[in-house]
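Tip: read the tokens left to right.
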């Protein structure tokens, strides 16, 4: 992406969404939704097959060992379908939590009545391979480990590769929520071992919301018949029906699928996962560099910073007020995201969606003007925030 090739503003004048999905999509993606499709029709079935084929290729499945099973609903529906179907009723899951999505996975297992234990690292500390190894050695009943690839609540990129090695060295199985990473951060089956990953249409592939998908080892899908607690979220049944008929089991989000196929074509034209990841990384570097120059501090050190979303501490200056900052940014065409840290005030800025470095420079300039408008002279965080961050280095 050249410096001069600025992505146009969204055509209806809506703001850029600096949020981790729904996010800003290409005009062509929205345009693809102007046609109605019959769910049973051959044209739509071909679209579903093409979506699945492209997603499997993105996951690096060259041997046909894996299947892609889309599931209606937001990403959490697909996570619930994966956990409820692939974990047997007598299984036990070790959940690696360091934020809202790890917590949600544990909550899902509570609803499902599946036995589980949680390693809770708090707001943002990474679960490490050594901790996973110790937990697995201590409890032979654990059959599965559930890891979050990029924990979107802080933006931390968790060390899934090292986690996977410890899991398989102990003969257990790994499931990965790669919702906010898949499509921009490599997680090919040949490089990282897992039984299944889950993601959704409206994150790094830059589609609109409406379905998620699970890419699972076929042997695991075969063995999962009868596990599901839910009729509608039975991944095995969805897979079998799709294999036999080429159709989704119940009404598919046809327009969303059409938009997603266009998004997949754009993703490929951009250079696939590598190209998409490079653009997001450039977005992050420009945005984080600019925000630091304004005096803001990021929660995470560069080692853990993902190219997906970045958490910044709110300035200690009493003139700073997040609601006002949000409104001032929005008035300039940029929608940012509140923070999710429990200990100190923070906010988040996403790097994903149809945006480039020129847009990110616009974000930084708008943030600078917002500080001036509020009369904030110093954007540095309270001492408490820096003490918190020091824990990461320890
Ligand atoms: C977005 C996301 C989900 C799913 O959230 P929904 O609101 O249900 O789409 C799950 N896990 C992670 C890490 C996410 O970023």
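Filled-in amino acids:
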């Amino acid at each position: 992406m050249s410096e001069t090739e600025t992505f146009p503003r969204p055509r209806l004048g809506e703001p850029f969404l600096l949020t981790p999905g729904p996010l800003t999509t290409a005009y062509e993606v929205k345009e693809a939704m102007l046609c109605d499709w019959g769910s049973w029709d051959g044209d739509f079935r071909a679209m579903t097959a093409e979506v699945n084929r492209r997603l499997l290729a993105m996951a690096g499945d060259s041997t046909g060992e894996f299947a892609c099973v889309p599931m209606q609903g937001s990403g959490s529906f697909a996570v619930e379908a994966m956990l409820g179907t692939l974990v047997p009723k007598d299984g036990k899951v070790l959940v690696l939590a360091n934020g809202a999505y790890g917590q949600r996975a544990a909550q899902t297992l509570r609803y499902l009545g599946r036995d589980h234990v949680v390693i809770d690292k708090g707001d943002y500390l990474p679960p490490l391979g050594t901790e996973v190894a110790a937990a697995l050695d201590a409890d032979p009943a654990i059959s599965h480990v559930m890891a979050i690839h990029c924990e979107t609540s802080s933006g931390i990129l968790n060390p899934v590769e090292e986690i996977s090695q410890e899991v398989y060295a102990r003969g257990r199985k790994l499931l990965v929520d790669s919702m906010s990473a898949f499509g921009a951060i490599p997680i090919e089956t040949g490089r990282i071992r897992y039984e299944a990953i889950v993601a959704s249409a409206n994150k790094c592939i830059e589609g609109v919301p409406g379905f998620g998908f699970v890419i699972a080892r076929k042997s695991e899908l075969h063995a999962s018949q009868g596990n599901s607690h839910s009729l509608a979220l039975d991944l095995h049944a969805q897979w079998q029906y799709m294999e036999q008929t080429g159709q989704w089991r119940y009404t598919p989000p046809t327009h969303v699928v059409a938009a997603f196929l266009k998004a997949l074509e754009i993703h490929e034209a951009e250079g696939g996962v590598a190209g998409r990841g490079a653009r997001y990384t450039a977005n992050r570097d420009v945005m984080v560099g600019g925000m630091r120059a304004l005096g803001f501090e990021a929660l995470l050190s560069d080692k853990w910073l993902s190219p997906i979303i970045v958490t910044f501490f709110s300035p200690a200056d009493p003139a700073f007020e997040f609601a006002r900052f949000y409104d001032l940014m929005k008035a300039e065409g940029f929608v940012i995201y509140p923070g999710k840290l429990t200990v100190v005030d923070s906010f988040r800025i996403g790097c994903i969606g149809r945006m480039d470095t020129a847009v990110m420079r616009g974000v930084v300039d708008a943030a600078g003007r917002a500080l001036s408008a509020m009369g904030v002279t110093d954007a540095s965080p309270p001492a408490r925030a820096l003490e918190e961050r020091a824990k990461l280095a320890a």
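Residues 35-268 form a domain with the Aspartate Aminotransferase; domain 2 fold (CATH 3.40.640.10). The chain has two domains: 11-24+272-393, 35-268.
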